[in-house]
Amino acid sequence: MFLTLYFDGQFWIGLIECVDDTCTGAPRLRMTRYVFGAEPSDIQVLEFVQSQLLEVAARATVDVVVDRKVKAIRNPKRAAREAAKIMRQLIVSTKAQQALQLQHEQNKQEHHERTKAEREAEEKRRREIKREKAKQRHRGH
């Protein structure tokens, strides 16, 4: 799991990347975004990691298959160099962008279905009211 903080010009954003390969052989990347707003202090980031990180990461429901080659690093100096190399990489990978886009599309589709159902229920309720009024008028009340 990786947490990457960056400033997008207006807000401080935290990108959470989770790679899971426990159930299948192919690793799957889940990506979610958390908006911090103003620049978070180290204490705020630590509190976020300790209390909210897993909840926010669990909201990512869409995952993308990634090709990851894992090397066993035995030398601690080599491990430090590899970690520094990872830290120098670009903030958002294309797979992460793809996962965010899929999550956004899924949320948009769910919102569309929910609002359509609410709209249809409201129209049905109004039709029922009109039918009841028509029956009352027909009865002469």
What does this structure look like?
The chain has 141 residues and is an alpha+beta fold. The protein has one domain (2-105). Helices cover 53% and strands 20% of the residues. It has four helices and four strands; from the N terminus they run E-E-E-H-H-E-H-H. The chain has helices at residues 42-51, 53-58, 76-88, 94-139; strands spanning 2-7, 12-20, 28-37, 63-65. A four-stranded antiparallel sheet has the order 1-2-3-4. Strand 1 and strand 2 form a beta hairpin. The mean pLDDT is 82.
Features:
53% helix; alpha+beta; 141 residues; single chain; 4 helices; 4-stranded antiparallel β-sheet; 20% strand; 4 strands
Brief description of this entry?
The chain has 141 residues and is α+β, with helices and mostly antiparallel strands. The chain is built from four helices and four strands, in the order βββααβαα.
